[in-house]
């Protein structure tokens, strides 16, 4: 949330990420976790929790992406347009 709040005050995502001390690639690669938790909390909470001893954060983000259906993706896109989520575009 700190990155989103800073982005709203800044002129760019780069400036916002620099101010909060987070690399853009880190945000980009793990954005699916935050997006799913905000756009579909019931789906997010239904996933097995992340266990840092058994799974990398990147793999957990991948599981979050896999849990998204078209409806959730559409909601995330709308939330990004409204400024409720960072406008990160996955490649």
From TrEMBL:
GO CC annotations, alphabetized: nucleoplasm
State the source organism's domain of life: Eukaryota
Question: Per the record, a Pfam family?
Answer: CCDC106
The protein's name in its UniProt record:
Coiled-coil domain-containing protein 106
Which organism encodes this protein? Oncorhynchus mykiss (Rainbow trout)
């Amino acid at each position: 949330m700190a990155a989103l709040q800073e982005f709203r005050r800044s002129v760019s995502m780069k400036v916002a990420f620099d101010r909060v001390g987070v690399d853009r690639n880190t945000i980009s690669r793990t954005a699916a976790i935050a997006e799913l938790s905000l756009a579909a909390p019931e789906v997010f909470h239904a996933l097995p929790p992340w266990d840092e001893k058994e799974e990398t954060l990147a793999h957990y983000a991948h599981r979050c992406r896999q849990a998204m259906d078209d409806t959730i993706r559409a909601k995330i896109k709308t939330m990004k347009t409204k400024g409720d989520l960072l406008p990160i575009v996955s490649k």
